[in-house]
Specification:
Layout: H1 6-34, H2 39-162, H3 164-182, E1 188-193, E2 199-204, E3 213-216, H4 221-228, H5 233-258, E4 268-271, H6 275-284, H7 286-294, E5 297-300, H8 302-323, H9 325-387, H10 393-399
Parallel strand pairs: 3-4, 4-5
Antiparallel strand pairs: 1-2, 2-3
């Protein structure tokens, strides 16, 4: 029996019990009202009720036996299904375990292979990195050597700048490089002796006016270094006074030595091969710069000297152009004569072209006449072929012979 039928069975039993109880209560009530006259039917009904109860008890026993049998069958079916499910689960677990073990083994093999390859790559990369590191260390070693050499050169430069004669030579070398790179060789000379016996570091030869300009390459570096290295304000003030006095004296010496009326220009240049000194003078010693302007001594640095030399080069080009003006005018006159001859030849060529065009038109006219005559000859031959017959061919030709008064088709127009 199915387990789902059990609630219905219990409900039926309960309903039967309730009906029995109700019947018994009704019989008792009826018995009390009617008296003893109805004793026999009541007993009969009670007997029937007892029979019904016995039948109900038998049915309940049968139902209980069926339920027990159904329960046993259900339990057996459940056990069989549980066994089948258990077997399937065990089989699935076994298969999953095998697949999992196989997958794990494959992944372990891949991981091991990847680790091996990674280890090899890491070794190769480590070798390459070590090689690059050795190369860089070699480059750093070379840079260190160059740095040591540069340090030595800087120390030598400090020694050069510490010596007045060596400092003057350094300024002359820098001035030499700037002038050589900016001007043609014919526009300058170095260590030139002037008429007063003074030797100029560089003489820029310009036409009058303005005339040749002298460039002096000495500069007062000692007082500037004392100003920069001054530990306190008092030392800076003293170094500043000394720098002002040195530069003023240097301006005066250049004005007296290198400005010679009639020989040089009315001004001279004081070259400072240090942009720092030039900036310091213009920033804190503008009165000294103004004094140089009044003495016509222009203070220049490497940058401003290069601009000045470019201006000088432009002036030289302008002077050369003025000197060669008559040559340019003569060449322009010759050029104009050549242009006139070219114009005559072009006109002659135009006449030739016009004559050639006329000849071409005449040729086209003659060609047209020849073409028309050929077409007329062709038409005459076609008419003769259509009119002639074999028996009277000779007579027809004699009758169509043109007379002297008829125009000749072959004659020209």
């Amino acid at each position: 029996m199915d387990a789902s039928f059990l609630p219905y069975l219990v409900s039926a039993v309960v309903a039967a019990v309730v009906i029995t109880v109700l019947l018994m209560l009704r019989l008792q009530k009826t018995t009390g009202n009617e008296g003893s006259a109805a004793d026999d039917p009541v007993e009969l009904q009670l007997g029937q009720l007892a029979d019904m109860q016995n039948q109900l008890a038998g049915r309940l026993a049968t139902l209980q036996e069926g339920q027990t049998t159904s329960q046993q069958a259900l339990n057996q079916a459940l056990n069989e299904r549980l066994d089948a499910v258990s077997q399937r689960l065990n089989q699935s677990l076994t298969e999953n375990t095998q697949k999992t073990n196989q997958t794990l083994n494959e992944r372990l093999e891949k991981v091991s292979k990847n680790l091996t390859e990674t280890s090899l790559k890491n070794r190769e990369q480590l070798g390459e990195q070590l090689g690059m590191l050795n190369t860089r260390l070699a480059v750093i070693g070379e840079a260190q050597k160059k740095l040591d050499s540069l340090t030595t050169e800087v120390v030598g430069l400090q020694e050069v700048l510490g010596n007045k004669q060596a400092r003057g030579a350094f300024g002359e070398i820098q001035l030499n490089d700037l002038v050589v790179n900016a001007l043609p060789p014919s526009a300058y000379s170095f260590q030139t002796t002037l008429s007063n016996g003074k030797r100029a570091d560089c003489l820029i030869m310009l036409p009058n006016p303005p005339g040749s300009i002298v460039i002096d390459s000495k500069f007062p570096l000692d007082s500037y270094r004392r100003l920069v290295d001054a530990p306190d304000d008092a030392a800076k003030l003293a170094a500043g006074r000394q720098l002002r006095a040195d530069v003023t004296k240097h301006i005066k010496d250049i004005s007296e030595k290198y400005i010679i009326p009639g020989e040089t220009a009315e001004s001279a240049l004081m070259f400072l091969p240090s942009e720092a000194v030039y900036a310091e003078l213009h920033a804190r010693f503008s009165d000294v710069v103004d004094q140089g302007y009044r003495a016509r001594v222009w203070i220049v640095s490497p940058t401003t000297l290069m601009a000045t030399l470019n201006t000088v080069r432009a002036v030289l080009k302008d002077a050369q152009m003025r000197e060669q003006a008559h040559v340019i005018q003569a060449e322009v006159g010759k050029l104009l004569e050549d242009v006139g001859r070219l114009d005559d030849r072009v006109n002659k060529l135009k006449g030739h072209f016009a004559q050639a065009e006329k000849d071409i038109r005449d040729i086209e006219t003659s060609t047209a006449k020849i073409t028309r005559k050929g077409e007329r000859i062709k038409e005459v031959e076609l008419e003769d072929a259509a009119q002639l017959s074999p028996p009277s061919e000779t007579k027809l030709q004699s009758s169509q012979k043109p007379s002297g008064n008829q125009p000749d088709l072959l004659a020209g127009e």
